[in-house]
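Rotation project, supervised by the postdoc (A.L.). Task for the rotation student: set up a whole-complex structure prediction and record inputs and outputs verbatim in this book. Inputs entered:
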Amino acid sequence: MKAIVDCNNFYCSCERLFKPSLEGKPVVVLSNNDGCIVSRSNEAKQLGVEMAGPYFMAKPLIGKHGVTVFSSNYNLYGDLSWRVMETLRVMFGKKNVEVYSVDEAFLDLGIFPENELQEVAEKIKQTVERWTGIKVSVGVAPTKVLAKVANRLSKKYTQQYEGVMVLDNEEKIIAALKQTQIGEIWGVGYQYAEKLKEHFCIYDALQLSRMSEEFGRTHLGGVTGSRLLRELKGIPSKDMEDELVNKRMIATTRMFGSPVGDIDSIKEAVATYTSRAAEKLRRQHSAAKVVSVFIVSKGEDHNTNFRGAMHGKSVTLPAATSFTNELIKPAVALVDKLYEPGHLYKKAGVMLSGIVPDDSIQGNLFLSETRNCDRRLMDMIDNVNFSQRDDVLKFAASGTERNWKMQQNHISDRYTTRWNELFEVC
DNA sequence: TCTGGGGTCCTAGGACCC
DNA sequence: TCTGGGGTCCTAGGACCC
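Outputs recorded:
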């Protein structure tokens, strides 16, 4: 049996933890650059504030009801996320915890007899809440997809289930599937949901679960779809993932706080994003051989991404590396090729690919010993920056003025990672 | 005026190889 | 006029997730 533990309205809960006066009041948290709404407290949901909606459009509603607004504070959320996950690892052992996202983790509960699962699930909820102050919902079922179904319902019918739902027999599974609409299934997005309704008159999860694996393969994206069908039928087909599996692509992209025209500022931004990407690379003990950069000018579609970007270029390095200085240089050089004077730019991004383990980097006889020195330098930078959950140490190419930085007009304090921003009890 | 960021998996088709 | 079989690697594009 598998469980999914999901933090309720995670970003909002993090903010409220240090502002208890907001308990029971509507709260929202904004995306980078204060663009969209990415987390809403239950009270905000009830007021009809839309998820992922642009902030400026929700402003009238937010103002009218006195909703409290926060910019994203990733220092705080990252630290609290770590505490939640660590709690689960202490309870169940590292091996049985798969961190799925900043606010969700799957657990393998295979070692527990079925008649204890309800108790175990309740224990998870209590312990995480007591140790971290973050409220969670727990769904338990034979497969990941069904656990997700259970989790959703445990939240939807809070009164009845109090945030814990265990699907340990056929009857309960059928009832749960019946209450789940097609588009609410994990792995069925908008496109598939429309297709299923329109062409096949399938509206709920129970109906879908009765279709064949072959149906999934043909209509829901090949093997992904057939796996989904199996999972719905209670046959585990999505294994617990080994978290040590490394990412094959690492990207850092950002909108600028406001459009930028001068090339030096764009280079600073690209150097900064490269540093961040390199840090992610080193954290997973990898090195990259390909550096790609794109910049998006003001007139272009804001959804423009790497592939769609008009102005993207990449270079293949002579040898894979994870050293910030060795990655910044080619990245900044790409800006020279992409930049057109007279344009205003609103966004830039850096992507590292061609990723290999850093102990398998192809040796080059002529590399000097200074590399060992650089290695130690990188380690030191990473340690200092990690301790602060921020890039307090950076390369000069990243700039000091940083007039391109994103807007965060409603940011809260970094209560758990900065001495001078500690929570005060008067 | 103002709409985020970072990923994953899969398929099809073309180029190329022996 | 006729023209095999089996592979790999890469890219583009489509779908999904939080």
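Student's summary: The first strand of chain A starts at residue 2 and ends at 7.
Supervisor addendum: Chain A is about 40% helix and 20% strand.
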